[in-house]
Amino acid sequence: MTTTLRTPAVVRTAIACAAALVGVSAHAVDWTGYMRGGPAATSVSGKSRQCYGIGEFKYRLGNEC
C-alpha cells in the first residue's frame, strides 16, 4: 500500500478555507451596543426636552425628564 503526501499548496488552501469558515461563523453574532439620544435629540415645539411618563410608576425606565 502506498501513501501519497499532499502537496503544500493543497494543505494551505484547506487551512485557508477552514479559517475563512471559522471567521464567518464568529461574525454571525453582532454586538452593536446601545445608543441613546439625550436632550438634544428631542424637541417639542422649540423646546429642547420632552418629558416621558408612565403614570404612577415613578422610577421606571422611560420616566425621564
Task: Explain how this protein is built.
Residues 1-28 form the signal peptide. Keywords: Signal. InterPro entries: Porin_LamB_sf (IPR036998). This protein is mostly helical and 65 residues long. The chain has a domain at 41-65. The chain contains one helix and no strands. The chain has one helix spanning 8-27. The longest helix is centred in the first third of the chain and has 20 residues, at 8-27. 0% of the residues are buried. The mean pLDDT is 67.
Q: What's the SSE blueprint?
A:
Blueprint: H1 8-27
* Straight-line distance between termini: 81 Å
**What is the number of helices?**
1
The major beta sheet can be summarized as: none
Coarse shape = rod-shaped
Question: Could you give a quick summary of the protein structure above?
Answer:
This protein is mainly α and 65 residues long. It contains 1 helix and no strands.
Give keywords.
mainly alpha; rod-shaped; 1 helix; 65 residues; 0% strand
